[in-house]
Amino acid sequence: MAAKRLIITAGTIALRIALRPTPTAEAIYAAAPFTAKARTWGDEVYFETPVEVPLESDARDVVAAGELAFWTEGNAIAIGFGRTPVSRGNEIRLASPTNIWGDTEDDVRRLAAVKPGTAIRVERAD
Fold first, then answer.
1. What is the distance between the alpha carbons of residues 52 and 88, in angstroms, rounded to a whole number?
2. Of 10, 21, 55, 93, which one is least surrounded by beta carbons within 10 A?
3. Cα separations (Å) of 5 from 32, 37, 45, 88, 113?
4. Interstrand relation of 13-19 and 92-103 (parallel, antiparallel or unpaired)
5. Are 60 and 94 in contact (CB under 8 A)?
6. What are the two backbone dihedrals, phi and then psi, of residue 39, each rounded to the nearest 5 degrees?
7. What is the pTM of this model?
8. Residue 70: partners with Cβ closer than 8 Å, 6 or more residues away
9. pLDDT by residue (tens digit) across 104-120?
10. Domains of the chain by start residue, with CATH
């Protein structure tokens, strides 16, 4: 069976997301479709979701470009694409440990064009 997929659209930018086999991914998939407003923090776009999940045992705050994170403290999806105010060197460091729940092969650096308040839609791709 193929992996479940989502599409996250921020303004005119769309990211195709392949879900990892995690409880967080399942919860986000079950909640889709939903909409939100973008927020930014350095080179990170994040937005609230209707999802509430606990921190998973492999949660981490340093992510790679293309990894999708879920910030449990804010019930938000976080997409890092470069330095944030807490980064060391060129790493992508989020505010606190997050659940990594998906991956995109699309260029997340395109999210640099997203401004706070931009409409975001999360929907199933399958």
1. 29
2. 21
3. 11, 21, 20, 32, 24
4. antiparallel
5. no
6. -125, 155
7. 0.95
8. 24, 28, 49, 51, 53, 76, 77, 78, 98, 99, 100, 101
9. 989 999 999 999 999 99
10. 5-124 (2.40.100.20)
**Joined tokens for residue 61:** 């705050």
Which residue's structure tokens are 């998939």?
29
CB 111 within 8 A of CB 10: yes
pLDDT in tens, 39-74: 999 999 999 999 999 999 999 999 999 999 999 999
CA distances from 106 to 29, 36, 68, 121 (A): 19, 21, 12, 16
Sequence letter at residue 65: A
Q: Are 10 and 113 in contact (CB under 8 A)?
A: no
For residue 30, give both structure tokens: 């079950």
